[in-house]
Write a structure and sequence with these properties.
Butyryl-CoA Dehydrogenase, subunit A, domain 3, 2 domains, three-stranded antiparallel β-sheet, 54% helix
Length: 325
């Protein structure tokens, strides 16, 4: 099946169910019922589930463009996470719940879990096993950040269904999903910012003709392309995600996220920060996803550790073997 045969209907569905108005409604406490029902009925939540278990049987690399589409539309529910969890549950022979599922990649007295306020279940990494728990059992609480759908959660000894932990655990998988979402949101921001620069007239001509602004847009485009390539490269490695690929993807995506958001707001000026304008729906998520599941600082240390653990081989040989293999 050609990728466009999947991506085009997926994009059309997201354009219908995840409009800016719908996203704002969820952020302000509205129900996700109608949006989630459309996703369930589409069958895309089982994209990574094997055909024998009733799914599409796609690889993570094939699903990569769908993850980017979720970022482009700022979808306010954990679709990519649910795809992964449903595949893990199916492989373990465990029934898949219908509701949205998010990932908790670390445990502690209180951790921030992306999409924790809208998830019905959480797959938590306990270090030696994975456990699927009800979101309500983890005492979800708002982070205090306006319109943030993440939640502070406390897992403690919460009981649930246990399944085998993949190599490396959940954090590398979550990092690659986050990189894909950043890539999609960044792509949409580049389109919006370029269009605004061409439409905004100042002193009788579009501001996009100013050389300094063109330089900024060129830098923004470089970051967008680098993020897209890094995310897709990591997805192409499949599940479970290799640590070097996760570290590369999340490091590049998180580093680029802040620069992309800054340039987008610099070009748009004051209108970019207004609540009525759609730009902030995407730039807020870039900053949120930049930190989620480890910032660039965390993943740079991981990447450095992976490199140093291989001995005296040339770094270019290591990159070929571990990143581009």
């Amino acid at each position: 099946m050609e990728m466009n045969e999947l991506l085009e209907p997926f994009e059309r569905m997201l354009e219908t169910i995840s409009t800016p108005a719908a996203v704002r409604a969820v952020e302000h406490g509205g129900t996700i019922g109608e949006m989630w029902s459309a996703l369930v009925e589409s069958g895309f939540l089982d994209a990574l589930v094997s055909e024998d278990a009733g799914g599409f049987g796609l690889t993570l690399g094939e699903v990569g463009p769908l993850i980017q589409a979720l970022g482009r539309h700022a979808v306010p529910v954990p679709v990519a996470e649910t795809m992964v969890v449903r595949a893990l549950l199916a492989a373990a022979g465990v029934d898949r719940p219908e509701g949205p599922i998010t990932l908790a990649t670390a445990l502690g007295d209180e951790i921030v879990v992306p999409f924790g306020l809208v998830a019905e279940h959480v797959l938590a990494d306990r270090g030696d096993t994975l456990v699927l728990v009800g979101a309500g059992d983890a005492s979800p609480a708002p982070t205090g950040v306006r319109s943030d759908l993440s939640a502070r959660m406390q897992f403690g000894a919460a009981a649930g269904t246990k399944i085998a932990r993949p190599a490396g655990g959940l954090r590398p998988i979550a990092a690659v999903l986050r990189a894909g979402l950043i890539s999609g949101a960044a792509d949409k921001l580049l389109t919006m910012t370029t269009q605004f620069a061409n439409d905004r007239i100042q002193f009788g001509k579009p501001i996009g003709r100013q050389q300094a602004l063109q330089q900024n847009l060129a830098m923004m485009a470089e970051d967008v392309i680098a993020t897209r390539l890094a995310a897709q490269l990591a997805c192409d490695g499949g599940l479970p995600v290799r640590m070097a690929l996760a570290a590369t993807a999340k490091s590049v995506a998180s580093t680029s996220a802040a620069r992309i958001a800054n340039i987008a707001h610099a070009v748009h000026g004051a209108i970019g920060i207004s609540e009525e304008y759609d730009l902030q729906l995407l730039t807020r998520r870039l900053h949120e996803w930049r930190l989620a599941d480890g910032s660039e600082g965390y993943w740079n240390r991981v990447l450095g550790g992976e490199r140093l653990a291989t001995g005296p081989a040339l770094s270019v040989d290591w990159v070929r073997a571990e990143v581009f293999a």
